[in-house]
Design the sequence.
């Protein structure tokens, strides 16, 4: 069996090749089993490779793609107007079996549209969802969707929950707790979509559905999988990153504001470094697209080299766990199960209690 290959969109993200190429080469040097395919403008990629003193070219493939999808381009433009974009060419490598996973820091909307067109979704899945792990008091929690679907119907939230539970099992959680992120834990709280999704999840056989959870419960570790639409999920993720950075900056300022603070800070330095490492956003960079017929990992567009390396490692883990195959095994019995007698597509949705 040949070694797995991860295709990399070398042109995407806020920093483009000058960040992605060095990060990819660093990953290649750190992991002797890793094989990469860098996709993009070869003259630019080769120039950046030349700056690296040692590159194992036997484990590195370069693939030409002369077009670049901008971070502000509309998905429709990316679909129709750039057939040779680095994002599309890399996805086609994955589709054609020349790669086992794909990582991009590029335009999320374009990636969503192109991945659905090139790879297709798994049977029974309407739309893929982006998922990542967040730190909690009890370990971590898988949050989805993170922005691939700004508006989600109840059936799609139901699908997200099933996929999230399967992904959590791949991380070693035998019977993951699943909850819907909401503005309150009472049945009467929330919008019609969330209430209807709750009715669906209550009837899902074999799913450890816990009900609603609020944002503070998320970080207390009260669930293993938190489900929401992409609008809410993206706000939670970005707010969490900003809060973590603000807290660490405040702590650092506190320990440098006076000689007493500097003394205490010197004594607490090992603990502070550990805390900083635990909460730095780059450590958790890399969101897996769940529901596609292939492994796709989205890196934060503003991620630096450390963050992009984390996204590559995320893709390697998804290959190791055969994430699409694991999802297929969980989707068939749950998506084929009978639904409760609620018309979630009706204008009024489910009863408001």
Sequence:
């Amino acid at each position: 069996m040949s070694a797995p290959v991860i295709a990399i969109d070398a042109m995407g993200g806020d920093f483009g090749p000058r960040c992605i190429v060095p990060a990819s080469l660093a990953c290649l040097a750190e992991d002797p089993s890793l094989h990469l395919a860098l996709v993009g403008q070869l003259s630019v990629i080769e120039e950046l490779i030349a700056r690296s003193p040692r590159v194992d070219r036997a484990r590195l493939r370069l693939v030409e793609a002369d077009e670049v999808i901008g971070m502000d381009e509309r998905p429709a433009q990316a679909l129709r107007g750039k057939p040779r974009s680095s994002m599309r060419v890399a996805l086609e490598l994955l589709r054609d079996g020349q790669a086992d996973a794909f990582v991009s820091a590029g335009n999320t909307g374009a990636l969503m549209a192109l991945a659905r067109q090139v790879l297709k979704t798994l049977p029974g899945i309407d739309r893929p969802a982006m998922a990542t792990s967040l730190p909690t008091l009890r370990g971590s929690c898988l949050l989805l969707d993170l922005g691939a679907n700004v508006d989600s119907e109840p059936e799609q939230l139901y699908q997200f929950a099933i996929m999230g539970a399967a992904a959590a099992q791949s991380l070693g959680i035998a019977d993951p707790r699943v909850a819907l992120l909401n503005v309150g834990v009472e049945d009467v709280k929330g919008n019609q979509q969330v209430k209807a999704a709750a009715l669906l999840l209550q009837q899902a056989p074999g799913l450890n559905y816990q009900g609603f959870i609020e944002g503070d419960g998320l970080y207390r570790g009260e669930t293993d999988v938190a489900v929401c639409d992409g609008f809410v999920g993206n706000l939670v993720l970005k707010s969490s990153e900003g809060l973590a950075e603000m807290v660490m900056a405040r702590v650092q300022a506190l320990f440098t504001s006076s000689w007493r603070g500097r003394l205490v800070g010197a004594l607490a330095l090992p603990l502070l470094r550990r805390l900083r490492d635990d909460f730095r956003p780059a450590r958790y960079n890399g969101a897996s697209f769940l529901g596609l017929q292939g492994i796709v990992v989205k890196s934060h567009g503003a991620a630096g080299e450390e963050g992009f390396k984390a996204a590559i490692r995320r893709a390697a883990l998804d290959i190791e766990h055969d994430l699409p195959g694991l999802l297929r095994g969980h989707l068939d019995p749950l998506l084929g199960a009978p639904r409760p007698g609620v018309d979630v597509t009706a204008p009024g949705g489910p009863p408001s209690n």
